[in-house]
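Hey team,

Filing this mostly as a record. A colleague (T.K.) asked me to run one chain through the structure pipeline before their review meeting, and I want the input and output archived in the tracker in case anyone asks later how it was produced. No errors, nothing strange. Just documentation.

Input sequence:
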Amino acid sequence: MRTTQIFLRSGLTVAAAAALPIALAAPSAVAVSSGISVSTTGSNVSVTTSACPSNGSSFGNASLLTSGQTNFSQGRQASLTGTSASQSASWSSVSPGTYTVIVVCANGTTAGTQSIIVSSPTIPTAPKEKAPTTSSTASPSRGVMGGLGGAVRNYGTVTVVGGAVLVASGSVAAVWYLRRRAKPNRL
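Output structure:
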């Protein structure tokens, strides 16, 4: 009974220890999420949000900051365009590296911040030329028989099986005959 209680207590301790990192990580996961969505395609970067209301003339600006830049005004800025339901901005010819995208609405609020990695674009390779194909005559599937004048003859399955049975029975008969002759005659 005592060992059962010890195992039960240690099991609860292990479960609590396993749940603690998950509980601590949950608030940080919520804090990381932002009101923007950033995507990359080759050397193009785009950001989309629905958090910026229009002030009548614009929705706000987005800034693309390199790893050494820390201020919104230091990055490459692009104006948000779109509708009241969805706004977006994009940058082209972005060099490979790690960047931070910040979106500031026209009313001065920050819609979100997100880090991205732009990888080097893959260089398309030229298609390989196909090697010329040569045609060859199909070889017979059941064997070839050379004859006078180079005649070729295909044997059917029945012929091959019949020949194999004859060879096998002839071999068995020859062994039986030779063994019988080797034994001394008993009278």
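Quick notes for T.K.: The beta strands are 36-41, 44-49, 60-66, 76-79, 81-82, 87-91, 97-105, 110-118. The mean pLDDT is 75.
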